[in-house]
Specification:
This protein is of the alpha+beta class. The protein is built from ten helices and seven strands. It has a seven-stranded mixed beta sheet with strand order 2-1-3-7-6-5-4, with helices on both faces. Helix 6 packs parallel to helix 9.
Length: 409
């Protein structure tokens, strides 16, 4: 037996439950098994013993439960599944559910037995997969046993679940007690889980409204991330809600199948207590539809509030940037004007300070005969600089327009 998976077996009977005032008394005396002993548990039929109240209507449960958050090992119990199929505890339908990860439930009816299979979505919420089958290993159909194989993760406390719910006591002959009580308990657990999680999700969404007013950009981004998580939770809960609605409908259908198969000789009525328990859970589940349908609108509204606040922040930042740009432009214009004012004087002063001019000369010639060299060098050099500047400007503009056109396309 892998440390990641715990395998346990439990055997009881309708008579034992009746003698305990129609309760499964806890703590349950589980038999701890490894994979080899689990196959023996499935294949070997307990001796019918009147002294231990095990004469008829025995219920056997094989629980395969993950002990860690990793469910991978749950689906690698090939030896147990093979033994369960050979003993007619499961059929191809249940193997298909496990292999394909099918969500939902189904009633499987054959000439010899009736089976009920169910599997939750494989999401982040607690998981279970169950096959419950009527075992015709006796001459009298009213003495039939039931075999159940249940795969769960550590999020489900099966013992606490079945020991705190009253077992139905109104089975009327010739309809024998069955163990449909177990999937009915799982339905009740699922409805409670969904209701609690929907209420928690609604509270978290309402808490977001107070945080949205006056939020800073970083906090708004965190809120947006949280909203995406809340949307994911809503999708998971809506899928669970659809699952439990289907489970309730299929349970009622299974009750009708059992009732019909037992009514071939005389009319019988299935347990009204168990039927009413399932209908009640179905009604309680139905009350969640309004909450689940209104949550997307609330989340969409909060997304809109976040987008509006971010747009307002962007507009304010743009205004600050424009103001700063106008100040920079004003400063640059001032510098340009001052430069234009002082440039002519600076130029003239620089020219006349050259050694080409001799202002101390007594003669009429003040300018040197080599003054032409100044203009011969300065004018072409200035022209070259201006031409290079024009070429660089035109080339940069073309490259910029090309990049912009590529992004637009």
């Amino acid at each position: 037996m892998s440390e990641a998976v715990a395998i346990r077996g439990f055997v009881t009977s309708a008579m034992v439950i009746e003698r305990s005032q129609w309760k499964i008394r806890g703590p349950i005396n589980w038999e701890r098994l490894d994979e080899e002993k689990a196959t023996e548990f499935i294949k070997s039929t307990p001796t019918r013993d009147r002294r231990t109240n095990m004469e008829k209507n025995r219920f056997r449960i094989l629980l395969v439960q993950a002990t860690t958050s990793d469910r991978g090992r749950l689906f690698k119990q090939s030896g147990i599944l093979k033994a369960a199929k050979e003993a007619h505890w499961i059929g191809d339908e249940f193997l298909y559910f496990l292999e394909k990860g099918t969500t939902g439930s189904a009633v499987v009816e054959t000439d010899n037995h009736t089976s009920f299979i169910v599997q939750t979505p494989k999401d982040d919420l607690p998981y279970f997969s169950l096959a419950l089958t009527e075992l015709n290993n006796c001459r009298n159909k009213s003495d039939a046993d039931w075999g159940c194989i249940l795969f769960t993760d550590k999020g489900i406390d099966l013992e606490n679940l079945i020991c705190n719910i009253q077992f139905p006591s109104d089975f009327s002959a010739p309809l024998p007690p069955d163990f449909m009580f177990l999937p009915a308990c799982l339905l009740q657990w699922q409805v409670q889980q969904t209701r609690d999680r929907v209420n928690c999700l609604s509270d978290n969404i309402l808490a977001q409204d107070d945080k949205l007013s006056g939020g800073q950009a970083k906090s708004l981004e965190r809120m947006r991330s949280l909203l995406f998580q809340l949307e994911k939770q809503h999708l998971s809960l809506y899928r669970r809600w659809s699952f439990e609605q289907d489970l309730a409908a299929k349970l009622l259908q299974c009750f009708q199948v059992i009732e019909r198969r037992a009514s071939k000789e005389e009319m019988v009525t299935y347990s009204q207590k168990l039927s009413q328990q399932v209908r009640t859970q179905n009604d309680l589940s139905g009350t969640l539809k309004h909450d689940l349908d209104t949550i997307p609108g609330k989340l969409k509204f909060q997304h809109g509030m976040i987008d509006s606040q971010i747009s307002i922040m962007i507009a304010k930042n743009s205004e600050f940037a424009a103001t700063a740009a106008r100040k920079d432009s004003s400063f640059m214009r001032t510098i340009a004007i001052i430069t234009l004012i002082f440039l002519p004087g600076t130029f003239v002063a620089a020219v006349f300070s050259m050694s080409m001019f001799d202002w101390e000369a007594d003669g009429t010639i003040v300018v040197s005969k080599h003054i032409w060299m100044y203009f011969a060098i300065t004018v072409p050099l200035t022209a070259i600089v201006m031409v290079l500047w024009v070429i660089w400007t035109v080339k940069s503009e073309k490259e910029y327009n090309k990049r912009i056109a590529g992004k637009i396309i």
